[in-house]
Design a protein that fits this description.
Number of helices: 8
Number of strands: 4
Number of domains: 2
CATH architecture of the largest domain: Orthogonal Bundle
Largest sheet: 2 strands, antiparallel
Shape: globular
Strand content: under 5%
CATH class of the largest domain: Mainly Alpha
Strand order of the largest sheet: 1-2
Radius of gyration: 24 Å
CATH topology of the largest domain: Cytochrome Bc1 Complex, Chain D, domain 2
Length: about 280
């Protein structure tokens, strides 16, 4: 158990160390002689899933998926997440019919036709409606098309983003809510960059993704920027760690077993060695 824990921590640390802290694109290079602009520490937020007994807020997960689908998915992929997992235990809790309907709203690359072709007469790739077993399709077919549409930027895949960034969910939340401030006079903004003090060097290519009322929640929750950021970060945390609740339950049961086993060993020791001291 301890060895597994050490390996998990080491893997997470190594992955985080090798991943640049970029949310939407590479930052602009600093001008010669420019003062260092270190990112502000992430805001400390309260999350339902924090702590050893924390669980995901199902309503927040569903709202967060809506924000991802209506706002984030136009630029960011989530290619490591299967659509069917939206209905898995410990997830957003969509029904089987809802998951099928969500899948049908996406188009994915089709298999070769009877002639072995993968494009139509106009040279366009053949597509079909997605099924729950498919993974979320990317918004663009490849990196070249992505950079062409994003003015050279390459938005990161969101599947593991929360776990890959130092500060995790607090960092992503801070980035999403960190727009709209005026840069200090000594910070010259590069062309096409946005000021965000929680981002390294304070300059990010991604424009503010969220705005007041940019989505309409079905449950009537006010669609503020803070609420949208909180919900989509909850969803992205689940996407990065969909088995978190199961892992915590397993860990709790293991601890109970070890405590009981320790007590049993203690009394067995007392019984066996009674009168031999």
């Amino acid at each position: 158990m301890l060895t597994f824990f050490k390996r998990t921590v080491f893997t997470a640390a190594l992955f985080g160390a090798l991943t640049l802290p970029v949310l939407a694109a590479e930052t602009a290079p600093a001008a010669e002689g420019e003062a260092s602009t270190a990112a502000l520490p992430p805001k400390k937020m309260e999350w339902s899933f924090s702590g050893p007994f924390g669980v995901y807020d199902r309503a927040a997960l569903q709202r967060g998926f809506q924000v991802y689908k209506e706002v984030c998915a136009s630029c960011h992929s989530m290619s490591r997440v299967a659509i069917r997992t939206l209905g898995d235990a410990g997830g957003p809790g969509f029904s089987e019919a809802e998951v099928a309907a969500i899948a049908a709203g996406y188009k994915v690359a089709a298999e070769p036709d009877e002639q072995g072709k993968t494009v139509d007469a106009n040279g366009q790739p053949l597509t079909r409606a997605a099924v729950p077993a498919d993974y979320f399709p990317p918004p663009f077919p490849n990196e070249k098309a992505t950079r062409a549409a994003m003015n050279g930027a390459l938005p990161p895949d969101l599947s593991l983003l929360v776990k890959a960034r130092p500060g995790h969910e607090d960092y992503v939340y801070s980035i999403l809510t960190g727009f709209g401030m005026t840069p200090p006079p000594n910070e010259k903004m590069a062309r096409g960059m946005q000021y965000n003090p929680y981002f390294p060097r304070h300059q990010i290519a991604m424009p503010p993704p969220l705005s007041e009322g940019s989505v309409t929640y079905a449950d009537g929750t006010p669609s503020t920027v803070d609420q949208q950021a909180h919900d989509v970060v909850t969803f992205l945390t689940w996407a990065a760690e969909p088995k978190m609740e199961e892992r915590k339950r397993t860990g709790f049961n293991v601890m109970l077993f070890l405590i009981g086993f320790t007590v049993l060993l203690y009394f067995s020791y007392r019984r066996v060695w009674r009168g031999h001291h």
